[in-house]
Amino acid sequence: MSFEIDVITLFPDMLDAITKYGITSRASKNEIFRLHTWNPRHFAKDNYRTVDDSPYGGGPGMVMLAQPLDEAITHARTRQLAEGINETKVIYLSPQGELLNHEKILQLSKLRGMILLCGRYEGIDERIIMRQVDEEISIGNYVISGGELAAMVLIDSIVRQLPGALGSADSASEDSFANNLLEYPQYTRPEIYRGDAVPPILLSGDHAKINRWRLQQSLGKTWLKRPDLLDLKYKQGISKEEEKLLEEFKQTKNFRIN
Ligand code: 4FV
After folding, report:
1. Which tens digit of pLDDT belongs to each residue from 77-93?
2. Which residues are in the tRNA methyltransferase TRMD/TRM10-type domain (predicted)?
3. Is 95 annotated in the active site?
4. Can 160 be counted among the known catalytic residues?
5. Is 169 contained in some domain?
6. Most ligand 1 atoms within 8 A of CB, residue of 98, 138, 157 to mutate
7. Is 41 designated active site?
8. Which of 59-73, 88-102, 188-202, 242-256 has the lowest mean pLDDT?
9. Per the residue annotation, which of 70, 77, 83, 95 is the catalytic one?
10. Residue 120 Cα: closest atom of ligand 1
11. What predicted TM-score, i.e. pTM, was given to this entire model?
12. Does one domain contain both 191 and 101?
């Protein structure tokens, strides 16, 4: 059963970045998910196939017209229903949306399908949000030129959670945000690079010690770089072992700092 994704966009070719490259391309070829795009311009009524107009009340820029979007979304719903998906979600990517995070991605990955609405210009007619949109999601508190890049961030992060999408080789990084810790440092050949050596513990073959070191590094890096995540970690619950490892790390750090 494929995860069905329909994307409403004026630039369908942008989605090639998902279907033609890397892990998402392989998952698409293996039908772990299926992507369909709908261009609102194909539903525009006039000869110029107009999809935007100036905002009522004045102001800069243009706003996307309701009708072409409404029809594109309706066609996407019809396709998903034909695939047996009765419960789809229409998600509008916008700066007004809920900030995307790992928890949200896990929740959405449990759906059977979703319809992603990509805005352009200043945004879309509010009546489409009222009539058709179930959720608004933002990838960050900044403005980009269109919803397509945000939609692809969402698709990529969800597809990685789908069974069979990740081969064993590329599974590790999943757990980091799963337990609110940053990833441990990674090293590969050569052992010495321009005078910098790989931490000897990683060459020891002692996997218990290596995992302990990696956990300590994840805790330490999170303490240094993302104390906000560490707060979530404490709320989620931190083990005695983890507390001890972090204290040890802080000692070495403080020792080095002073
Ligand atoms: C955005 C974000 C975003 C707003 C106007 C597209 C732009 C333009 N989408 N997370 N941040 N969208 O900036 O999702 O239409």
Report:
1. 999 999 999 999 999 99
2. 4-230
3. yes
4. yes
5. no
6. 138
7. no
8. 242-256
9. 95
10. 15
11. 0.93
12. no
